[in-house]
Amino acid sequence: MNFELKTLDAAAAAGHKTDALIVLLSAEAKLPAGTLAKWVADARKSGDIDATPSKLLTLWHPEGMQATRVVLVSTGDGHAVRVRQAVTAAMGALKAAAPKHVTVCLPDANAPCLQAAAQAVADASYTYTATKPSAKAAALKRVVLALPTAAKTKAAKPAFEQACAQVAGVALAKEWGNRPANHATPTQLGKVAQGLAKHKRMSCKVLGPKEIEALGMGSFAAVARGSREPMRFIVLQYNGAAKTVAPTVLVGKGITFDTGGISLKPGAGMDEMKFDMCGAASVLGTFEALGLLQPNINVVGLIPTCENMPDGLALKPGDVVTSMSGQTIEVLNTDAEGRLILCDALTYATRFKPRAVIDIATLTGACVISLGHVRSGLFSPSDELAQALSAAGEAALDPCWRLPLDDDYAEGLKSNFADVANVGGREGGAITAAKFLQRFAKDYPWAHLDIAGSAWKSGAAKGATGRPVGLLLQYLLTA
Ligand code: BES
Ligand code: MN
Ligand code: ZN
To answer: Which of 477, 463, 283 shows the shortest CA–CA distance to 373?
Structure first.
């Protein structure tokens, strides 16, 4: 899909050839006088269009317009959330027509609105085809985002570029999130990362079992031991600033399938555990966006990736493993494997002397119970980092919510046989998981995003969302 930014005043909009012209109407914003403005005024008088968000009116081959279809859609107060809903509704109305070329007319250069519109168009036309040859690839090839004046177009340029990069990053994260575990193995994720290194200023190193063992990542390696698929540790680097500038490190959980191991999960819905690498996918997607944008910052991406399987060599409840940090861990439940692979990656992160480390993981079912599918869980002992990530989530319409990290929550992680146990009780499970990780993230400002509820959708719309690529990109570009 190709995005363009264009100026279309009233006359140009009338003469603009496109399969569908989507015109966003906020309650306040006025259209430049012309054919469109007259219709809108008339339709408002007749009540066919009003300020109700997402209310829409479709015109077919309207006289005096070159567009095949014109969709007038209300964005209510004009907030980015309403813009996203309005564009989604308009794209829904156009579904049967399968337009190849869509133009969205925005009233002004508001960055969140522009990004919301671009992402909504992309999401509406995304089709998964990798293992479904019968699926028809999306027809949409060309998307024009239009503003009414040249000055507004100029002001919108940076937001437009960020929007295009975000769309590409989200698409990559969705694509790999959606692929089944036998088409998205640790080896294949390593290849995807190596492919990203084609971007300027980007490099990639993929470590295999021998190298991972040699680093002393005993906790990560113990999880991988139950699977025939060899583990990988992916190190991506984007160097857009001087070597002396401390990087931000992103750590993504890459469990390509989580059976629970010997603490086997129930069968119902277990297929969704192919999504247990969505943290890793979000790191890959964010690097794709960085590669396209080329900002002047340094970023490191770390991805421990393996399967969690039951096997003769698999971890058993009660086993004690030694992490790269030297801390020993009693594995009371082999289904709490995410923290076991992340803790070694967090220790590895220290060598980059990072300004901040953010891990992203589909870590706990408990987080889904706490926050549902709307907001990701955010944990950080640093108010500053938590504030920056929260703000980035709001701006990118990829929101998160901070949960506490009081030391009392770590009580349940005490072990008689190791420095720490890998599970506490059932209660406050998302927080005890974060408390476990915190023990390995003492050397730098750290935050943890639990995306168990936000990374994918279940039911009829089952599929990866590409979150939190939008949040991460927004944070990296503004922090
Ligand atoms: N990948 C799961 C978390 C998960 C479960 C995400 C369901 C989304 C939906 C993780 O590895 C896991 O199994 N966590 C356990 C932890 C428990 C054993 C302490 C959980 O949440 O049940
Ligand atoms: Mn698990
Ligand atoms: Zn898991």
So the answer is: 463
